[in-house]
Amino acid sequence: MDKVVKSDAEWRAQLSDLAYKVTRKHGTERAFTHDDFPKDPGVYHCVCCGAPLFDQGDKYDSGSGWPSFTRPANPEMIGEKTDRSFFMRRTEVHCARCEAHLGHVFPDGPEPTGLRYCINGVALTFEGEEE
Fold this sequence. Notes:
By secondary structure, the protein is of the alpha+beta class. Helix content is 12%, strand content 31%. The protein has helices at residues 8-14, 17-25, and strands at 42-46, 52-55, 59-60, 68-69, 78-83, 90-95, 101-106, 116-119, 124-128.
């Protein structure tokens, strides 16, 4: 996989203020601000580099207020690291291609994986399947 590396100025020019804050500075968007994602078949991509990250078929309503998925479309596209911010210990997930912060993964999701990839909607773009 080709890594995508850009300067801070390049990321700022490419992204909205909120997308920059979330993906490049490890921020979090407010819950329930991206409940308008399409329901059609397709793939969610990294807003920073376009890498395919999550499939619509693995998306579900967790009630958390953020888009949630049971698994990544391709596990190699998702990196993980321990996040100890805010006096908690969580597993952060990021785009393996460009290191964009996406959200966190928790062990309280539905079958078949038991995982909940809780992702900031502003970190994703959606591409529907061609008919």
